Amino acid sequence: MAYIDFVMKLHTRTRRNYVQRVVENDKAECATIAKQWGKDYWDGDRKYGYGGYTYDGRWSVVAGDIIKHYGLAAGDRILDVGCGKGFLLHEFTRIVPGIQIAGIDISRYGVENAKEEVKPFLKIGSCIKLPWPDQSFDFVVSLGCLHNLANYELWAALKEIERVGKKKKYVMVESYRNENEKANLLYWQLTCGSFYSPKEWEWFFEKAGYTGDYGCIFFE
Question: Residue 8 gets which letter from DSSP?
């Protein structure tokens, strides 16, 4: 298992007012709506989630770095766990023609409003029970999904990722390195269910038998 950062350079492009989210809104109500994973979360008011999640090519650099690091090539089978609207998968197919993709997300709205080119390869479902046979994929990726789970769900999801994947796997989660980042995460998050430091995440990964790589985003 190795710690690899593919996402922080994209994450830090967005400016966030952490305290404003708590002071100006009913945080509990916003979180309740966000966890329905519907239109409000993806394309509604910013206080409920993304505030409009449309394709703009932002995931191209992340996909490119992942492809280069893991040596992904045409014919490889890739699974995105928590694929949302499929933007990352679209970038994989654009950069490496002939790559085979699949995605799964709990959000019906996200899948139904996915990028048209990848929509036929996406499923609506839970990451704690993946509908594919053992070792179906050459690479499994999950960005910004697993921290939304309770610990017992996280345990099941990691075992499922390990089961359907071969050697190459990568997950990215929200985390914190100090008290300031912990407070910012608590202020900003709407859907997070597992709050761990990087060392705690690594401990959990190892206990669950996950053998892939991982990275974190931090709310500085």
Answer: H
